[in-house]
Design brief:
Chain A is α/β, with parallel strands linked by helices. Chain A is built from 12 helices and 12 strands. Chain B is globular. Classes of the chains: A alpha/beta, B mainly beta. Chains A and B meet through α4, α5, β5 and β9 of A and β6, β7 and β8 of B.
Chain lengths: 377, 133
């Protein structure tokens, strides 16, 4: 099967940018990725654009501004994993021999405040059941009950990621915080305090993927997998109203990770750096367990060991994670991949993971949708 | 007048009940009612009323009004495990997480949410700590 390489990456910083449109941000990221890849008009045969709130023809609007249309342009919505879904489609098309060069990007401008999602029926909103932080809180509480995670652990995830993010000029928050400040911020939904939740925000990211035999590149896309949920868990990102009184249904993240490890011929023990979904502090710990970075129930011990901090055995979220960068849904997964490509190239300066050669990106969200991408150098 | 936040989810009788389905093929119970078993895809599972009593499995409180919500805050949200092997996400009548404990008996209630634009009381289902018997 044809290999896939990353020929170029580009990013519009994540944050809040009044007066800058979804299209404007997409143009910045796409331009940068095309420039890195050394390609222009007519040099890619398809484009996939991840976005959840961008609206009709988000991808077309970006590429129209750049004078590059005529090829298939497909917008992809898969909640928090929209960018991962776009990447999976692009990689699959190249592997199948359909295209040799594909542009993948994501751009997003999230409404402010608690995310209003069309996923919920009007009656769920009326009944107060459209509270995303409440579902995060319930999942966090169960993690505390089953994995020995305490509020102190949750605060230390935030402190770790914000320390990493302080070295990332593209992050929304570039200032460190303390356990005391995190626990001193107001309670949103027990056990989660305000600083333990990422901010929905704005940003864009782009990549150029290319058939491996066409041009040499340092970074190979070893796997790009998307999975939905299988029913069972009441706290799954599928956000059901009920589930089974059993805990044996594999999480969508585990389904995606298992398939990605198989596709890459690698396992969690081979990873050098991970960017994972940390929409809230407990989600990072749960992600570590579901990705197989530790035993089930072992995420508190993994954090305690220092392994996931920069300088540790397996740094998790060296970019600062969504807790530092914020979360523009359509761009967040590709933002992770851009970070990991730069990590594998050794371009990350003070947040560089030394000698990183195998990297994993993970997003999971409503649907459920879970995306896992593995990159190698 | 009293109106349900959505028809077909629960009954407003005394006592009330959640309306689910039971799959004759695999034995699973679903809430809300399903067109096909969500686990084994068998068509047309049998309509059932779910148990009114269960035990508390997870809980939190919502402190800021979520999108589209017109009622009071704070309010409780939790997961109640029913004897037929199903866990249900529900509002809770208790909004102080410290007042609740894992495994405590809970029972179904119908509670008021808000008045709609026509002056009707909109009601929904919720679980409350069970009254001592």
């Amino acid at each position: 099967m044809t290999g896939v390489t990353v020929a170029g990456v580009g990013l519009h910083p994540f944050g809040r940018f009044d007066g800058v449109s979804t299209t404007d941000m997409g143009v910045v990221a796409v331009r940068a990725a095309l420039r890195e890849a050394g390609i222009g008009k007519g040099d890619f045969q398809a484009a996939f654009c991840g976005t959840a709130y961008g609206g009709v023809a988000t991808g077309h609007k970006v590429l129209s501004r750049l004078g590059m249309t005529g090829m298939p342009i497909v917008d992809v919505e898969a909640g928090c994993a929209s960018g991962g879904a776009a990447l999976m489609l692009a990689a699959a098309a190249i592997r199948a021999g359909q295209y040799d060069t594909v542009l993948v990007f994501g751009t997003e401008k999230m409404p402010k405040g608690i995310i209003r999602s069309s996923f919920f029926e009007p009656w769920q909103e009326e009944a107060g059941l459209a509270s995303t932080p409440a579902f995060f809180g319930l999942r966090a509480q169960r993690l505390c009950m089953t994995s020995g995670v305490t509020k102190d652990h949750l605060a230390r995830v935030v402190v770790k990621n914000r320390r990493h993010g302080a070295a990332n000029p593209d992050a929304m928050y570039q200032k460190e915080t303390t356990v005391e400040a995190v626990l001193g911020s107001r309670v949103v939904c027990e056990p989660l305090h305000l600083f333990m939740l990422c901010s929905p925000n704005e940003g864009a990211a782009a990549l150029v993927l290319r058939r491996a035999d066409l041009a040499p590149s340092d970074v190979t896309l070893a796997a790009a997998v998307l999975r939905s949920h299988i029913p069972g868990s009441v706290l799954s990102e599928s956000t059901p109203l009920a589930g089974l009184a059993a805990d044996d249904a594999p999480a969508p993240t585990t389904l995606a990770a298992t398939a990605a490890y198989e596709e890459a011929g690698l396992g969690p023990e081979d990873l050098h750096v991970v960017e994972c979904q940390d929409t809230d502090a407990a989600r990072e710990l749960g992600s570590c367990e579901e990705l197989g970075l530790c035993e089930p129930g072992g995420s508190a011990a993994l954090l305690d060991s220092g392994a996931t901090t920069l300088g540790g055995r397996l740094p998790v979220n060296p970019s600062g994670g969504l807790l530092s960068k914020g979360e523009p849904l359509g761009a967040s997964a590709l933002g992770q991949v851009v970070e990991l490509v730069r990590q594998l190239r050794g371009e990350c300066g003070p947040r560089q993971v030394d000698g990183a050669r195998v990297a994993l990106s993970h997003t999971v969200g409503r649907g459920a949708n879970a995306g896992v991408v593995i990159l190698t150098r | 007048m009293r109106v349900l936040v959505r028809g077909g989810l629960f009954t407003d009788g005394d006592p009330p009940a959640l309306l689910g389905t039971h799959c004759g093929a695999c034995g699973s119970v679903h809430f809300p009612r399903a067109d096909a078993c969500t686990y084994c895809a068998t068509e047309n599972p049998e309509p059932v009323e779910l148990s009114r009593q269960g035990t508390l499995w997870a809980w939190t409180a919502v402190t800021a009004p979520p999108p589209g919500y017109r009622g009071e805050v704070p309010f409780g949200i939790g997961v109640v495990e029913l004897p037929e092997g199903v866990r249900v996400i529900s509002r809770l009548t208790e909004s102080d997480p410290a007042a609740l404990t894992e495994g405590q008996p809970m029972e179904l209630r119908i509670v008021a949410l808000h008045q709609d634009d026509d002056g009707n009381d909109v009601v929904t289902y919720a679980f409350a700590p069970a009254r001592p018997t």
